[in-house]
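Re: [ENG-882] Designed sequences occasionally contain unexpected residues at chain ends

Forwarding the minimal case from QA. Structure tokens:
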């Protein structure tokens, strides 16, 4: 039968087409040609990987990097061999009609198997070919073929693969599949590598990474803007085709760090421009010294006070590590979008200084859902498809400033660029069983990973973080975790997660005396030592205590009534000489109430910040606060009087400085974080009445000595046990009388509050054991929910991912009118953060004159759009998108609320907006000319100063 087909490349089988219904206008590409395009793309991507990562994958393949590249090319070329099947080919009748029925059977079908994705069919084809023509066992053949099986983002489950293995071959089609595989093998010159793998297969970590490479190669080769379609499906001049394609793809010269300065003093002077007379502090010195003497992947847990320069010390360590380990980048992760935005410019400034010593052009990404609104990010040069390569002819090393590259600009590829500044969700989602998680692993595997404010991960998030750390350790990725305060149990769980795969690798290598991981970790000191750096790596775990260089600062703690009038009575005398007061509330409702009250009392000298403002308004508010409350610098005029009210965004997002802090009660570590905003910066002068840093604590409806009672919303946000433990430790330490000494007492206070031996005051009537049990059950529930969505733990089992692929994905089907990619990303973030999914909408006004923004919005206030008006101006579309806001959870908490809210929102959609790329698929909520409206039986209003207010039928307004 093979002799009836010209050659062995089967040119009559197609893989890509521009349309299916009009033969006269049809362009397409043969399956063989598409495989060659994918192979060429994979080679390009392989050559742009970090040398250290290429070396690790090559080691797993028992090959040189040059031979490993050949296998990468073959795996990419063969990824779509499953398209050589009747079900796929008949999708274009005019092309299917060209297939000779004497060669390809049209009757002998596989039944249900024929309806499987071509990725899964391709896996079966490759497995059969490896067994029948390359002498592989089924088990080892699957370790290679699963790369094809996972190239659509998910690995198939074991039962499906077993069924396919037993399915009969289809006359003619099996011959075609084998012909194509042999042709691709010959073209890639990968026979020798396949011979080496016949008895060992591919390890799980490289299965993931190779699948990620093939996914990227498939996406590049499937883009008709990069690889042209043809009228007859067969490119004629392959060399010219590849030159055009790679020019369109426009990958810059691969970036590599240079050698970092040897001493920390030299480094800081060169990279951060130290002020005259300034020197790196003891913690910065210690971390830099540590990484200089380590050439294998390690976990570094840095516990140090706020304001101790942890960002700079992490960047310095990252560059030093990268040069020694052949890594090509860094991922810097933070808990919120605001902290991520704030750190981005510091990372860009650092990167600009490293470029002179490195080679190539670094790519850059900002990874969160609002990144397109960051002006600094938008100002970076963009390498667009089919555009000339960005380069600087005057640059001696051929490099350039950091660029944003079109190929790495979507949500799933945000970790691929050399430098990625992201929210922690991007790290956590590497452990989430969602589509294309292989891409996140590929992005992380070539970098140093830095996670700041790691204490912000709750018990649910911690499960995803631990699983991510396990895989990062398997990939030999250095990780730096930073925090001001971290409970002992949380820290040791993270260390154990990273250290476990190291011990597993040592055991497999036959090293003697390998101790049990849990025993080693628990032997670490549990108290004292602050600041402290804990290191876990090939040579074990060590804990390094660093003396504090600064004198302790005393903070006076004051109990205040949870009544705004009483609070004002206490504050008013203090404000006689001015001052900046920060008020941190646990809920948006309390913050809105407090802002309205104090704005009236101070004659308009109050500000409010929380998460329920329009994106445009929140960015403006954050910029305003930073401009007059940020670090002292020339041209900044700190106001004489200001009351700044907010939620936890003030605690973890902004580098601002208060003269007096009023805070709701919170768990000890978060309370200390809030205190870090008090007298944060060195200032020559503060108001006389606020010269001593004072923390006024509210959030209790009663401070009764025998029965302190939490304000209702505090217990709704945080576990009662954590709050009462905080109060108990403060009582035990006599903090209300003596105050607290920070940062010296920070570690001790946190460990005591989270320890197992917390003792409530004898006069309290609260049942400690009952509250502790309630907290334990709540944490267990969070952890259990996380476990249902995790990818497998790394292990030595050859087909680990295949055998575990049947676990239930955490994410359901996309059921809303949101754009599919954005909706999937939002669902993933909700899953790893353990938050109920809520709706993000574009908030606009509909008046008798048309659709517009709000009266204070210069560009949107008077646009007066109609339902029929197309948005042809990308700038206007971006401005409209900046009116996005997330609705409270009450709109989606129950199925009835979710369904009613979604139905009403979709009824408000503007059809003409679906023709604009940014606006397509977005949900819109319209308010009237007075900025009021209704949704799902609730009244809403939006105020420039208060944000979104939702009034329920039975409540005043939302939390």
């Amino acid at each position: 039968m093979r002799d009836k087909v010209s050659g062995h490349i089967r040119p009559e089988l197609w893989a890509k087409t521009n349309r299916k219904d009009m033969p006269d206008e049809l362009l397409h590409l043969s399956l063989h040609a598409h495989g060659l395009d994918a192979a060429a793309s994979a080679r390009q991507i392989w050559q742009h990987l970090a040398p250290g990562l290429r070396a690790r994958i090559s080691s797993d393949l028992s090959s040189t990097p040059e031979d490993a590249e050949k296998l990468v090319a073959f795996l990419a070329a063969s990824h779509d061999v499953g398209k050589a099947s009747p079900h796929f080919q008949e999708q274009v009748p005019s092309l299917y009609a060209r297939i000779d029925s004497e060669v390809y059977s049209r009757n002998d079908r596989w039944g249900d198997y024929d309806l499987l994705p071509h990725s899964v069919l391709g896996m079966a084809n490759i497995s059969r070919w490896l067994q029948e023509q390359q002498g592989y066992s089924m088990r080892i053949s699957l370790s290679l073929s699963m790369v094809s099986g996972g190239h659509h983002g998910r690995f198939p489950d074991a039962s499906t693969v077993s069924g396919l293995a037993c399915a009969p071959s289809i006359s003619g089609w099996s011959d075609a599949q084998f012909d194509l595989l042999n042709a691709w093998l010959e073209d890639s010159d990968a026979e020798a590598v396949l011979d080496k793998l016949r008895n060992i297969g591919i390890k799980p970590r490289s299965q993931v990474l190779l699948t990620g490479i093939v996914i990227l190669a498939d996406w590049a080769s499937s883009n008709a803007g990069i690889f042209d379609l043809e009228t007859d499906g067969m490119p004629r001049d392959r060399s010219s085709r590849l030159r055009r394609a790679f020019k369109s793809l426009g990958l810059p010269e691969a970036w590599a760090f240079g050698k970092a300065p040897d001493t920390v003093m030299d480094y800081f002077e060169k990279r951060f421009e130290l002020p005259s007379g300034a020197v790196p502090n003891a913690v910065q010195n210690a971390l830099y010294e540590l990484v200089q003497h380590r050439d294998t992947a390690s976990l570094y847990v840095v516990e140090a006070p706020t304001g101790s320069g942890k960002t700079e010390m992490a960047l310095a360590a990252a560059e030093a590590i990268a040069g020694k380990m052949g890594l090509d980048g860094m991922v810097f992760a933070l808990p919120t979008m605001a902290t991520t935005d704030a750190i981005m410019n510091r990372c860009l400034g650092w990167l600009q200084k490293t470029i002179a010593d490195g080679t190539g052009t670094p790519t850059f990404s900002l990874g969160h859902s609002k990144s397109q609104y960051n002006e600094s990010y938008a100002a970076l040069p963009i390498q667009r498809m089919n555009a000339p390569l960005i380069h600087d002819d005057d640059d001696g090393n051929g490099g350039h400033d950091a660029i944003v590259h079109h190929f790495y600009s979507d949500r799933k590829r945000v970790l691929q660029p050399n430098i990625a500044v992201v929210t922690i969700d991007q790290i956590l989602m590497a452990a989430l069983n969602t589509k294309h998680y292989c891409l996140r692993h590929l992005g992380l595997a070539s970098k140093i990973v830095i996670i700041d404010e790691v204490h912000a991960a709750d018990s649910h998030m911690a499960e995803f973080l631990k699983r991510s750390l396990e895989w990062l350790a398997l990939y030999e990725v250095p990780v730096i975790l930073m925090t001001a305060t971290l409970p002992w149990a949380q820290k040791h769980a993270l260390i154990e997660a990273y250290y476990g795969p190291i011990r597993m690798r040592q055991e497999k290598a036959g090293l003697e005396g390998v101790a049990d991981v849990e025993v080693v970790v628990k032997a670490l000191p549990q108290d004292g030592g602050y600041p402290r750096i804990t290191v876990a790596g090939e040579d074990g775990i060590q804990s390094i205590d660093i003396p504090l260089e600064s004198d302790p600062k005393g903070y006076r703690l004051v109990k205040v009534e949870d009544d705004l009038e009483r609070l004002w009575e206490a504050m008013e005398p203090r404000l006689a000489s001015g001052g900046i007061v920060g008020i941190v509330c646990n809920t948006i409702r309390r913050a809105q109430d407090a802002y309205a009250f104090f704005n009236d009392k101070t004659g308009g000298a109050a500000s409010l910040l929380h998460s329920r403002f329009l994106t445009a308004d929140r960015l403006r508010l954050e910029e305003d606060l930073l401009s007059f409350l940020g670090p002292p610098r020339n041209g900044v005029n700190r106001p004489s009087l200001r009351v700044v009210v907010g939620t936890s965004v003030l605690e973890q997002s902004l580098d601002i400085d208060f003269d007096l802090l009023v805070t709701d009660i919170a768990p000890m570590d978060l309370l200390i974080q809030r205190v870090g905003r008090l007298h944060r910066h060195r200032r020559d002068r503060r108001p006389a009445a606020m010269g001593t840093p004072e923390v006024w604590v509210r959030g209790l409806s009663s401070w009764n000595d025998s029965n302190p009672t939490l304000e209702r919303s505090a217990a709704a946000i945080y576990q009662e046990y954590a709050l009462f433990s905080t109060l108990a430790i403060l009582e035990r330490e006599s903090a209300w009388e003596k105050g607290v000494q920070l940062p010296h007492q920070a570690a001790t206070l946190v460990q005591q509050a989270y320890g197992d031996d917390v003792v409530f005051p004898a006069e309290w009537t609260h049942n400690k054991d009952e509250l502790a049990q309630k907290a334990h059950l709540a944490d267990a529930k969070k952890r259990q929910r996380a476990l249902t969505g995790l990818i497998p733990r790394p292990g030595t089992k050859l087909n680990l991912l295949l055998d575990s692929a049947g676990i239930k994905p955490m994410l359901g089907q996309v059921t809303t009118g949101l754009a599919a990619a954005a909706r999937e990303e939002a669902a993933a973030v909700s899953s790893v953060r353990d938050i109920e999914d809520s709706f993000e909408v574009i908030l606009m006004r509909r008046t008798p004159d048309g659709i517009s923004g709000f009266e204070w919005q210069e560009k949107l206030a008077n646009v007066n759009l109609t339902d029929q008006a197309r948005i042809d101006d990308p700038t206007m579309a971006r401005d409209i998108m900046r009116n996005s806001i997330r609705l409270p959870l009450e709109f989606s908490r129950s199925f009835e609320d979710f369904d009613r809210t979604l139905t009403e929102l979709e009824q408000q959609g503007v059809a003409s907006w679906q023709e604009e790329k940014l606006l397509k698929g977005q949900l819109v909520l319209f308010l009237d000319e007075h900025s009021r409206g209704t949704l799902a039986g609730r009244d809403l209003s939006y105020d420039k100063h208060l944000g979104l207010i939702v009034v329920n039928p039975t409540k005043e307004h939302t939390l």
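QA comment: On inspection the terminal residues look reasonable. Confidence is low (pLDDT under 50) at residues 1-7, 392-399, 808-819. Proposing we downgrade this to a documentation issue.
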